[in-house]
Amino acid sequence: MTDHDPIRVLFLCTHNSARSLMAEAILNHMGATRFRAFSAGSQPAANGQPHPLTLEALQSAGIDTHGLRSKSWDEFSRPDAPELDLVITLCDQAAGEPCPVWPGQPVTAHWSYEDPSRVEASHDEQLYAFKHVLHALHQRLELLMNLPLSRLDKFMLEHHVRSVAPSRNKPLGDD
């Protein structure tokens, strides 16, 4: 990694319809020229559409949702895929699945976040769950952005990226 090339980060969740898409959008929004974020899933949404509350939560935070789509992680294991620096799983199911071989032998980490789409409640309570995860991801990504990434070797980078992971995400609704 250099000071000139953006750090390429792939966020993974099983369905790529909520958490990983939020992380992609947040990092691309905050990271400017330092980062380039992508997201994917092992079993992406059949219609390619993000969860509607993912889009609503991002838009309410002023984050662009144009072009966000649910996609397979196979897109990032092809020879023409972008070379990745970091691959971060955001759900426990995806973390336990055998992943493809990623171009560039990226550093990997797991940040566990509960799936807001599993909340069964009123629209407002569901939206709160999505905003809760959005806020938690935003905080974690700020920590990632503040790491001296261009000065770290792969071993130290892996250590630092894993160290900003929450040991366990607080249950939705806990503040």
Question: How many individual β-strands?
Answer: 4
Q: What shape does the CA trace take?
A: globular
Major sheet: 4 strands, parallel
Contiguous uncertain segments of 5+ residues: 167-175
Taking all residues together, what is the mean pLDDT?
85
Query: What is the helix tally?
Result: 5
Q: How many domains make up the 3D coordinates?
A: 1
Q: Could you tell me the radius of gyration in angstroms?
A: 15 Å
Order of helices and strands: EHEHEHEHH
CATH topology tier name: Rossmann fold
Name of the CATH architecture: 3-Layer(aba) Sandwich
Helix fraction by DSSP (H/I, runs of at least 4): 25-40%
Amino-to-carboxy terminus distance: 37 Å
Name given to the CATH homologous superfamily: Response regulator
Order of strands in the sheet with most strands: 2-1-3-4
User: What CATH first level would be assigned?
Assistant: Alpha Beta
Summing up helix and strand content along with how strands pair, one would put the structural category as: alpha/beta
Per DSSP, what share of the residues sits in E-state strands of 2 or more residues?
A: 5-15%
